[in-house]
Write a structure and sequence with these properties.
- Helix content is 71%, strand content 4%.
- The protein has four helices and two strands; from the N terminus they run H-H-E-H-H-E.
- A two-stranded antiparallel sheet has the order 1-2.
- The protein is mainly α.
């Protein structure tokens, strides 16, 4: 009988130990569940933040593209003004002296690259008329970004503060 009691007491001690371990495990599981919930919330929030960031980058690119187009349009407008001012005798032709002056002005315009040979050829092909010069300026809009046009613009080099005065472009 004593052996039986000893065995029962030993089993109770083991059972009590197991109950304590079970309680400790429950506490650890609860803590892990809290950590998991926190991590889940972070992952969810980060996923949304990444999506929002990607959308913001796309929107920013669209704005930048629009700004580049506006800069090119403003430069084209300023180039037209310079061309019209270069026709000093108002005969609707750019005479050789006026072509030289126009080339100098265009070569020194900020952000504008002029292919002088192609520019002079384009003007002479069309009879040195204002229309030929304006056609070369229109080439700005259709030129590829590889610089193959007669007149190309690098929007990064344009000084926006000078864009209100076409003569100040240089």
């Amino acid at each position: 009988m004593n052996r039986l009691r000893e065995n029962i007491n030993r089993q109770r001690e083991i059972n009590d130990g197991l109950a304590e371990q079970n309680d400790e495990l429950r506490v650890q599981v609860e803590k892990l569940e809290e950590v998991e919930e926190g991590l889940s919330a972070i992952v969810t929030r980060q996923g949304r933040n990444v999506e929002a960031f990607v959308e913001a980058v796309k929107a920013n690119q669209a704005v930048l593209d629009s700004m580049k187009d506006l800069i090119k349009a403003k430069i084209l407008q300023d180039l037209v003004t310079v061309v019209l001012k270069a026709d000093r005798d108002r005969n609707s032709k750019i005479d050789p002296g006026e072509i030289g002056m126009l080339v100098v002005l265009l070569k020194h315009a900020h952000g504008v690259t002029l292919n002088e040979e192609r520019f002079r050829n384009k003007i002479s092909e069309n009879g040195d008329s204002i229309e030929a010069v304006l056609g070369a300026c229109r080439d700005l809009l259709s030129a590829e970004s590889d610089g193959s046009g007669i007149i190309t613009v690098d929007p990064k080099k344009v000084h926006l503060s000078n864009m209100t005065d076409p003569i100040a472009m240089v």
